[in-house]
Every structure is written in C-alpha cells, then in structure tokens.
Amino acid sequence: MTTHVTIIGAGLGGLTLARVLHVHGIPSTVYEAEPSPTARAQGGLLDIHEHNGQPALQAAGLIEEFRGLVLEGREASRALAPDGTVLLDEPDDGTGGRPEVQRGELRKLLLDALPAGTVRWGRKVSGVRTLGDGRHEVAFADGATVVTNLLVGADGAWSRVRPLLSGAVPEYSGTSFVETYLFDADTRHPAAAKAVGGGAMFALAPGKGIQAHRESGDTLHTYVALRKPRDWFAGIDFTDPAAAAARIAREFDGWAPELTALITDGDTAPVLRPLYALPDAHRWDRVPGATLVGDAAHLMVPSGEGANLAMHDGAELGKAIAAHPGDVEAALTAYEQALFPRSAAEAADAGRLHELMFGDSAPHGLIAMFTRHEPTVA
Questions:
Q1: 159: pLDDT strictly greater than 60
Q2: Angle between helix 257-264 and 241-250 (nearest 10)
Q3: 107 is in an annotated binding site
C-alpha cells in the first residue's frame, strides 16, 4: 500500500519534503494555516549553502530552476564600527558557494513544482491526538479532521505537532530583532545605501547591533538586535511606528547617522521579532507514525542555517520514506538518527555565533572568524 504523508506547514521544509516525495511517486497533502501563498510577506534574503540547502534542491529536482533565482553580487559582506568606519569589506567572490535568493521566490518555486491541490490553504490546526497503531487525528479550526498514518510537523516554532513527541517549549533567547525596510534606497536613502554596500552589512557592539542586507532592487532590509528582556520591549508602543523607531534608535545614540537612519527612516513600521530557541540537544523518543522537520524540530537563534536545515530535513525525510517503502517506522528511525546529532551541532554553532555577534568581544570576535583567525569569546 502506498504511504500518504500528511504534512502540517507550507514553509520551506514542508514543501521540500512534499516535492521530494512527489519526485519518488509518493503522495502527500500539506495543510497550511495561511489563507493563500501571498497572505503575508515571506521574509528576506536566504543564502543557500552547498552542504545542505543546495543538495536538498538537487534531491527535489529543482537545482537549475533555483540558479535562475540567484541575486548576483549579494554574497558581499562588510563590517562597520559604530562611527561608520569600515572594519571589514569582502566583495562577492563570484564562487556561488552561498548564493542569495529571496525567500518568497524560493517558496514559490517549490509550490509551483507540486501537483495542483497538494497544499490546502486556510487549514489552521487546532489540535492533534494519537489514535494508536501509528495513526493520528489532526483537528482543524473549522471543525474538520483528518486521520493519517504518517504525520510530519513542519509547522515552525510553535508547532501543534511537537507536543505529540516532546514536551519541550521554546524559550526566549534574551535577544530580539526589530525589523525595518528602506525602499528605493539608492535614490531616497543614499547614505544608508552606501553604508550597507552591495550585500550584507553588520555594525555590532556588546549587547546590540544593526544588520542590513541589500535585497532585490535597492531595498535595504534591516534587523536591529538588542539583548533586552521581553518586559523592556513591552514598554515600547509598536502601534506608534515613529515613536517605536525613535525609542529603538536611542539605544544607538552616538552611532553614525547613516546607520541609525536604517531605523529612523524606515519605510515600514518597525516589527518586533523576539528570538526563541529549543534546547540545543532537543530530541525525542520514537513515536510511531510522527516526526518533525525544521524549526518544529530544532528551533535555534538565527545563524544563516535555519532555512537550509529545514530544506535538508525535508529532503532527507523524503528520501528515507522512499528508501523504506511500506515501512514507516524504519524510515522515521533512519531519519531521526541522523537528524538529532546534526541539529544539535548546528544549534550549538548558532549559540556561539550569537555570542561572537553580541557578546563582550563584539565585533572583534566575529571579524576574526571572517578573516579566519581564531576568535576570542569573552
């Protein structure tokens, strides 16, 4: 009997899984809470890595199409001091080892490569329960239910599927990002555009930082980082965009105006993004008929690996299911045995990276890493 896979969540991990299954002739259905693929913005640039994200796209049969989405020159990176002095300036070397693409375009590529009707939009999960014998019932907010013999939670940080397998709950990392955009930056915000350059820019100090990336066209996408408790951010009225931006910018008093303009001159309201994480070594005992991919399995602070890991998870799970026809438990066991050490190592690396970025050695520890010297973490 052909296994039909039920996937909760139409992010990059769930869609990669569905596509790899389709390549192997295995049907799946993806249930997504959002009402349509364009219901919300899909985030910024992603650098897709040679060792995990690109092999996942290869397994999905989409590597050539992916190359058509790459934004040339965006692998450039630079570090600035708070006064605007350039500390590091590395141009795009043209090797394409970490090509940059827009998340929304990559998601659309995966969606368009699935059979019509694979993704069911507007299906918000309200709960999941075990029926025994590896079967699970998924209940939706509209009152509908489905029963499945193979359930995959690809539903992100606050996964509704995770409680079937694990009691772990994401905890606040102590750092939040505040997200802003500048549009038509070369024309309307030339000083900020010059500071950011052609790719990624970071200006860091202990406990804080301004990071920006040049996206398609001349859009600058900024993530302002602050190591502050949640209560501190609760004291900011984000319903008043100008006041919220001004309050965040005060944490950078004395910094170069071309850097603080990335906050105060934003063309969109600032959006608070608290960073949560699961335990670095998060794992679970084998639960018949269910598993997790992506942030549902190993939510970690941003390190440039999240999307890559989610796609890698999806591809590896899809290949494991194809390699064990009719034996769901063998497939899930093989997948999880590789997943747990891989995700634990990446989570630990992400924590070390954040310490280099926002710890007492910032920015020098991170610059040392970029220049291939041994970083010093205070």
A1: yes
A2: 150
A3: no
Report the alpha-carbon distance of residue 46 to residue 10 in Å, rounded: 17
- The answer to the question of whether 186 is labelled as a binding residue is no
CA 89/CA 86 separation, integer angstroms? 7
- pLDDT (tens digit, 9 = 90+) per residue, 210-226? 999 999 888 999 999 99
List, as one string, the DSSP characters of 213-275: EE-STT-EEEEEEE---HHHHHTS-TTSHHHHHHHHHHTTTTS-HHHHHHHHT-SS--EEEEE
Q: Tokens for 192?
A: 């900020």
Is 103 annotated to bind a ligand? Reply is: yes
* Structural class in CATH, domain 171-277: alpha beta
Kindly state the helix (H) or strand (E) to which residue 55 belongs, with its residue range.
helix 53-59
Condensed to tens digits (0 to 9), the pLDDT of residues 113-133 reads 999 999 999 999 999 999 999
Please report, as a single letter, which amino acid is at residue 114: L
Q: In the CATH scheme, what is the homologous superfamily, with its name and number, of domain 5-71+103-170+279-356?
A: FAD/NAD(P)-binding domain (3.50.50.60)
Q: In what order do the strands lie in the sheet with 171-182?
A: 86-90, 77-80, 200-205, 208-214, 220-226, 171-182, 271-277
The amino acid that residue 298 corresponds to is: H
List phi, psi (to 5°) of 71: -90, 115
What is the reported pLDDT for 286? 97
pTM given for the model: 0.94
Would you kindly state where each structural domain of the chain is located, as residue ranges?
5-71+103-170+279-356, 171-277
DSSP 359: S
The rounded distance, in Å, linking the Cα atoms of 114 and 284 is: 30
